[in-house]
Amino acid sequence: MLFKMKKYLKNERGFTLIEILAVIIILGVIATIGIPSVLEHVENSKVNSEMQSMLVVKDAAKRWLLDNGKPGTAMTTSDCKAAFIPNYLDATWPEKLDGTDIECSIATNGTITVTGSTTNGTITGK
Per residue in 57-79, pLDDT tens? Predict the structure, then answer.
C-alpha cells in the first residue's frame, strides 16, 4: 500500500510553495515598477489633450481675427464663445481637465490669451 502511495505521489504534478512565492514576488516587483509608469502616461495624455483643445481655441480666435479684425473692446470667454460657435468651432466649447471651460480672451490690440488648467499654463500670441 505504501509503495502504491509513493508511486502515485511521484507522478503527481504541481508547483511547490517556493515556486509560487517566487512568482508572487516577481509579479509584485513588476507591479511596483509598472503601475506608476502607466499612471504617469495617463496623466500626460490628459494634459496633452487639454493643450490640443487650447490650440484649437487659439486657432479659432486667429481665424475670427482674420475675418473680423481687432475687436473694439476686449473679448472675454463668453464673448469668444458667442463669436466662435458655430463658424469657427464645432458646437461644443473645449473643457479643462476639471470640466470647466477653457478660458479665452482677445485684447483690443489683437493679443489672444487661452488659459487651461494650472498644470498647462497659458498660450498667448497674435
Answer: 788 888 777 777 777 777 777 77
Distance CA(41)–CA(121), nearest Å, equals: 19
What is the pTM for the complete model shown?
A: 0.60
Q: How far apart are CA 83 and CA 63, in angstroms?
A: 11
Q: Cα separation of 80 and 71, whole Å? A: 11
Residue 60: domain span: 16-125
List, edge to edge, every strand of the sheet that includes 122-125.
Answer: 103-106, 112-115, 122-125
Q: What's the structural domain count of the chain?
A: 1
User: What confidence tens digit (pLDDT) does each residue in 103-117 have?
Assistant: 777 777 777 777 776
